[in-house]
């Protein structure tokens, strides 16, 4: 299947998925309210961070090895190592968390808000960690082996289940107001379990026979384990720094401003992330192509994606900024009107994040993850400094300004690390060419003809 077709299918499926996810977020936000939305953001953020810390950047690591085809006797041994690392991380995390909870350790306060430390929230913390860990592994294998049709189907499937379940709950008012937060987390956990079973089924049915892998490598060949951990650890460090750069605000806001203000910020962050959620998986489609292309051809593809992506995403974010004051009160209610300005500010910052992410994927493909690591480290340092300076006095608005500064500097560093050594000029990467639009137009025309 061609690159353009894979990009188009992934983008199309993500458009459907994000529309369904958007509807689900409306149901969830109306069910939870500002404070409940803050609790959900707090716990979910911790799960994502812990998954990165213990997962060794599993999505990108598996995508890299699946694309490079490190095989021996028909078995992709490094993909088998990935399974072992994933399962061990889940076992380790579950054991530690339950031990801390049983001993009533104060560490649990940093993972679950103190007033919400129930058995259901604990189960959600562990269950969502396991779900995300396995999902990251499967996503990486599907992307690296170019099985985008399977990946796209499973993404849409999970969103359909969520919309159906929470739509019914909200429409019929099935949750009592006193226990709504607990019930929402329990329902999410059930959805994750169903979705994970479906994904494992497709993996066993459609993927294992195609790529092949051997679990025996995990204990028979330590060199393979070292290879996977060495690659994944750099990606993990870069990912954690990038995550902290984008989500450190959540902890600062909760500490200085409280859970309700965090709820306003969490909604604005979720909405401004819409285009990134749609387009980031599409960017991952590029990884196996960057990985297999020559340096010159890789730069040509990178420049094409930048020229199209830069201006398209700029227009998209401008539209989101203009629609924000109307859409947020309409969908989420007047109680979330304080999310409007933060949403608009975050859209500005995330524009730089998206363009930067194109170059992040390119650096992963050419095994230059240290550049991403340094770029994210610089962004994180700026985030910490400006969060301390701005959030205590300016609250959510200060957090947004801090993010814009950090995102822009990180963007300049990572993009510049590729553009400057290439010595092709800034215009080569950012100014559209007539043939760019002609190629996109030709592809759309072909798709229309096929449908006819």
From TrEMBL:
The keyword Cell inner membrane does not apply. PANTHER family: O-ANTIGEN TRANSPORTER-RELATED, PST FAMILY PREDICTED COLANIC ACID TRANSPORTER. The lineage of its organism: Bacteria, Pseudomonadati, Bacteroidota, Saprospiria, Saprospirales. The keyword Nucleotide-binding does not apply. Pfam families: Polysacc_synt. This is Membrane protein involved in the export of O-antigen and teichoic acid. One of its GO terms (cellular component) is plasma membrane. Its main location: membrane. Coiled coil: none annotated. The chain crosses the membrane at residues 12-33, 39-58, 79-100, 120-138, 150-172, 184-204, 224-244, 264-287, 308-328, 340-359, 371-390, 396-420. It is a multi-pass membrane protein. Keywords: Cell membrane, Membrane, Transmembrane, Transmembrane helix. It is found in: Cell membrane. It comes from Neolewinella agarilytica.
């Amino acid at each position: 299947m061609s690159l353009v077709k894979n990009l188009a299918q992934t983008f199309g499926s993500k458009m459907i998925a994000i529309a369904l996810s958007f509807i689900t977020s409306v149901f969830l936000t109306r069910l939870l309210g500002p404070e409940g939305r803050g609790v959900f953001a707090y716990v979910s953020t911790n799960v994502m961070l812990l998954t990165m810390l213990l997962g060794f950047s599993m999505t990108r690591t598996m995508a890299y090895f699946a694309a490079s085809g490190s095989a021996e006797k028909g078995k992709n041994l490094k993909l088998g190592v990935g399974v072992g690392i994933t399962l061990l991380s889940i076992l380790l995390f579950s054991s530690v968390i339950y031990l801390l909870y049983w001993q009533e350790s104060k560490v649990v306060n940093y993972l679950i808000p103190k007033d919400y430390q129930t058995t259901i929230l604990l189960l959600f913390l562990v269950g969502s960690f396991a779900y995300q860990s396995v999902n990251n592994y499967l996503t990486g294998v599907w992307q690296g082996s170019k099985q985008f049709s399977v990946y796209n189907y499973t993404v849409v499937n999970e969103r359909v289940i969520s919309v159906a379940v929470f739509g019914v709950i909200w429409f019929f008012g099935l949750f009592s107001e006193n226990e709504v937060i607990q019930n929402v987390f329990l329902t999410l956990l059930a959805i994750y379990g169903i979705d994970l079973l479906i994904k494992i089924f497709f993996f066993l049915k459609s993927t294992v026979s195609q790529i092949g892998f051997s679990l025996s490598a995990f204990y028979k060949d330590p060199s393979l384990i070292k290879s996977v951990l060495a690659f994944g650890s750099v990606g993990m460090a870069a990912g954690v720094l990038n995550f902290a750069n984008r989500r450190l605000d959540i902890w600062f806001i909760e500490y200085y401003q409280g859970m309700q203000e965090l709820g306003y910020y969490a909604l604005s962050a979720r909405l401004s992330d819409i285009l990134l959620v749609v387009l980031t998986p599409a960017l991952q489609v590029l990884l196996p192509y960057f990985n297999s292309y020559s340096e010159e051809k890789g730069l040509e593809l990178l420049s094409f994606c930048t020229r199209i992506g830069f201006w398209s995403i700029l227009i998209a974010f401008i539209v989101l900024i203009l629609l924000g004051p109307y859409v947020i009160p309409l969908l989420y209610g007047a109680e979330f009107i304080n999310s409007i300005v933060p949403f608009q500010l975050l859209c500005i910052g995330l524009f730089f994040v998206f363009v930067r992410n194109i170059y992040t994927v390119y650096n992963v493909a050419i095994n230059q993850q240290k550049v991403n690591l340094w770029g994210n480290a610089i962004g994180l340092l700026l985030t910490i400094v400006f969060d301390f300076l701005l959030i205590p006095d300016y609250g959510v608005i200060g957090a947004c300004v801090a993010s814009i500064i950090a995102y822009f500097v990180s963007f300049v560093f990572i993009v510049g690390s590729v553009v400057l050594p290439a010595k092709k000029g800034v215009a080569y990467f950012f100014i559209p060419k007539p043939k760019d639009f002609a190629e996109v137009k030709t592809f759309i025309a072909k798709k229309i003809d096929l449908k006819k």
